[in-house]
Specification:
four-stranded antiparallel beta sheet, binds 2-acetamido-2-deoxy-beta-D-glucopyranose, 14 helices, secreted, zymogen, tripeptidyl-peptidase II, 22% strand, Rossmann fold
Length: 559
């Protein structure tokens, strides 16, 4: 799929033969026990085939981070000077030493691996369970997901040869359990029948958002200004539904306006009305329908990946990174709880979003719909941060409601990561909030973690068409595409004025951008038998810095 340096090097290396493997194994990753909701069924059959992926350590992530901040901070002389594909790849490609070490080990272990990322830092291969257990001192076993009855083969720990330390980042799937209920659309409720008369207090339409956030209805002019919408788990975007939506809610535009589709992992986008997906339709209708004239691309990720899980996120970001020109905005309304993933995997994916940001993409994700209880969890003692919202190199979008007096939506997930520390752009905002919060929720969240969401938009009672029916949905799933449209329209103006698109938004949002947002100071996000976090003046872990005002944002970006 990708041509890479590591692939070429495989054939060039002289090998040190005869060294017995497994003689000096070092524990690499482990988890404390079987995650809640799973039970051990028994050992996996020795001949059962496992599809494994391994990640090599990336060479210069610290320098990439420095460059990302440099090109994304408005006060920097290099603001907007995004990196090229080659520049980013040179910074993250594994070192020759790492490539050599891993290739030697693959060869010695008689494994045929193929690269699955543009820089060759991810490889995939198939091995029987017996061999996987030997290679990694692992105990791959069958675990059953209690609620769905679905099975997954996982291990609670694995080791790697000492000589691969510092070269091999992680093996997946190993200790990361699938979230069978995860990576699903972030909705707080199913579609409800829309009322007869659609005023903004009963249903949100593009016109309501245009009025509230001063979003222009005029047509964007820049054909290069691509907005990517990602879709997973057989969520298909229906063209007829989009046309009905535009007919009904954007009579001022050409109702045949549509989107392009890219597919990966065997993805598709069938158009049978019965296949129309709530999430995909919502995302497409509030991008094509709000980002007037902006080219929208639907990236449909298929089921060639195991467990419909995080492999989909990995493959999406690698697909986008492999393009010579990246989309200026990418919006995703899927996610899962941070604690279901290994730290190494969370870090690795987060670094991939860093690469996208450095290339100039604004990476947006919905923050989740379980309040402080996270993406889907029902019971919890401590608050559950969601992924990838805890990653400091993307923008997490929460939800508000009510047009007359915007207030936090009570499902809007927010809080503090346990995996990622607060980034420098955010520390002042977090300290100010924690001071106001006092002892509330003390001990239930990590005071040093990256706080999320960063920003929010309306997310309750969005009118959409699905399978020919008009209905309304709630969720941060409504908010991320709405913000994506606003950022895309800003980018359109910036590009038309000969400037760079905004790219990674947070350093801007937390500095010169903050005053262009409507501060939301009421509401909270209950969960885990608490009232959650209260929204307050300034940043808060319910609504972030607030909701966008297009006119003020235009001024803030210098237009
Ligand atoms: C409306 O959009 C469609 C699809 O892009 C295009 O074929 C058609 O010519 C457009 N109609 C008008 C009146 O611009
Ligand atoms: C709290 O967050 C930090 C990162 O800021 C992390 O290193 C630490 O492990 C977290 N603590 C817990 C208990 O998860």
């Amino acid at each position: 799929m990708f041509t890479t340096r590591s692939l070429l090097l495989v054939s060039l290396i002289a090998l040190a033969l005869g060294k017995p493997m497994g003689s000096n194994m070092k524990l690499h990753e482990s988890r404390e026990g079987i995650p809640d909701g799973f039970s051990l069924r028994g050992p996996a059959l020795p001949d059962r085939t496992l599809k494994l992926r391994i990640a090599l350590v990336q060479s210069n992530v610290a320098e990439l981070e420095r460059k990302l901040m440099d090109v994304s901070t408005p006060s920097s002389a290099n603001y907007g000077k995004h990196l090229s594909k080659v520049e980013v790849e040179q910074l993250v490609a594994p070192t020759h030493d790492s490539v050599d070490a891993v290739n030697a080990w693959l060869k010695e272990s008689d494994i045929n691996a193929r690269p699955i990322s543009p820089t060759g830092d991810w490889l995939s291969f198939e091995v029987p369970v017996r061999k996987a257990n030997e290679l990694f001192d692992a105990d791959f076993s069958v675990y059953t997901h209690d609620e769905t009855g679905k099975e997954a083969v996982r291990t609670l720990s694995y080791s790697i040869p000492a000589e691969l330390q510092g070269h091999l980042d992680l093996v997946h799937p190993a200790i990361t359990f699938p979230n069978f209920k995860g990576l699903r659309p972030i909705f707080s409720s199913q579609m409800k029948t829309a009322p007869q008369t659609l005023t903004c207090d009963v249903a949100i339409t593009p016109a309501c958002l245009q009025t509230l956030y001063h979003i222009p209805s005029s047509k964007a002019s820049q054909p290069s200004n691509r907005l990517a919408v990602t879709g997973y788990i057989q969520q298909y975007a229906n063209e007829d539904d989009l046309e009905s939506f535009l007919d009904e809610f954007r009579p001022d535009t050409n109702s045949s306006t549509t989107f392009t589709t890219s597919t990966i992992d065997g993805g598709s986008n069938p158009q049978d009305p019965g296949e129309a997906g709530l999430e995909a339709n919502l995302d497409i209708q509030y991008t094509v329908g709000v980002a007037t004239g902006v080219p929208v691309e639907f990236v449909s990720v298929g089921d060639d990946v195991q467990d419909g899980g995080l492999e989909g996120f990995l493959d999406t970001v690698h697909y986008v990174l492999s393009e010579s020109t990246v989309p200026n905005v990418m919006t995703t309304s899927y996610g899962q709880n941070e604690n279901t993933m290994s730290r190494n995997l969370a870090n690795n994916l987060c670094n991939a979003y860093m690469q996208l940001g450095a290339r100039g993409t604004s990476v947006l994700f919905a923050s989740g719909d379980g309040g402080v209880a996270g993406s889907q969890s029902a019971s919890c003692r401590n608050f559950v941060p969601t992924f990838p919202s805890g990653c400091p190199y993307m923008t997490s979008v929460g939800a508000t409601e009510s047009i007359v007096s915007e207030t936090a939506a009570d499902f809007s997930s927010g809080g503090f990561s346990n995996y990622f520390a607060a980034p420098s752009y955010q520390t002042t905002a977090i300290s100010a909030y924690l001071e106001k919060l006092g002892n509330t929720n003390s001990g239930k969240f990590n005071r040093t973690g990256r706080g999320f969401p960063d920003i929010s938009t309306q997310g309750v009672r969005f009118a959409i068409f699905v399978g020919g029916q008009l209905g309304t949905v709630d969720g941060t799933s409504c908010s991320s595409p709405t913000l994506a449209s606003i950022i895309s329209l800003l980018n359109d103006r910036l590009i038309a004025a000969g400037k760079s698109p905004l790219g990674f938004l947070n350093p801007f949002l937390y500095s010169t951008g903050a005053s262009a947002l409507n501060d939301i100071t009421s509401g909270s996000n209950p969960g885990c038998n608490t009232n959650g976090f209260p929204a307050k003046a300034g940043w808060d872990p319910v609504t972030g810095l607030g909701t966008p005002d297009f006119n003020k944002l235009l001024k803030a970006v210098g237009l």
